Amino acid sequence: MFKKLFTKSSTPTAQPAAPVRASLAELTTKAAYSLRKSGLSGQRAAVYLVLDRSGSMRKYYSDGTVQYLAERILGLARNLDDDGSVPVTFFSTEVDGTLTVSVDDYAGRIEEAHSRLGHMGRTFYAKGIRAALEQHRQSGAMVPALIVFQTDGGPDDRAEVISLLHEIVGEGEYEGIDAFIAFVAFGKEVGFLRTLDVLGLKDDRVSLFQADEPEHITDEELYDGITHEFVPWLLDRQSARR
């Protein structure tokens, strides 16, 4: 399932400086280049972002890392999605809240929303995944969904997540929803995500980009890590429909 695991891990003798954060226009250009490298030209997808708000994520919200991730995904969506916006779902024990970031309204939105959502709970992946799937189904979009799912640890609902992935490939409630899940893992606690490689699903709809130190991941690394499996999947889906 994970054809290639992109990992930015290091035990450096000196801590590298965090990359300079690019503008939205620069991010849009970088995302376009990554998509072209992966072979995409003109195809569309609806982009969703699901963000972990479990207690261990606190530092990534406070230092702006999650806000910048949302900006990067908005840059990706500007190349894939017609409306120039990204629905965002915050999850922990439950779905904590939702919002939409757009070209005209994205600066500081994640930090602002997080500060209003209160208690940071546990890590129930299925809550966030289902919320994004429902958003896509209710949108009536005729294009596949790219769900970028960020987390920093394994889920508390492992069995439900595995069951849900089987549903996504057409074995249950979500049959007929074209959706690809690109996991973005902050830190090293990604053992569960690696086990998804041996599920034996009939349709490969999951990828993993691991960022041991997300504050030091470059834009190019992130985009390549998300697109390297999503683009071939999208092209295969479209070819099969011709």
Radius of gyration: 17 Å
Distance between the termini: 25 Å
- Strands ordered across the widest β-sheet: 1-7-6-5-2-3-4
SS-based structural class?
A: alpha/beta
Per DSSP, what share of the residues sits in E-state strands of 2 or more residues?
15-25%
Question: What's the quaternary structure here?
Answer: single chain
Main sheet specs: 7 strands, mixed
Helices, by number, come to 8
- Which regions contain 5 or more consecutive residues with pLDDT less than 50? 3-13
Shape: globular
Helix content: 40-55%
Order of helices and strands: EHEHHEEHHEHEHEH
Average pLDDT, rounded to a whole number, is: 88
* Total strands: 7
Overview of the structural elements:
The chain has 242 residues and is an alpha/beta fold. Helices cover 41% and strands 19% of the residues. Helix 1 crosses helix 3 and helix 1 packs across helix 8. The chain is globular.
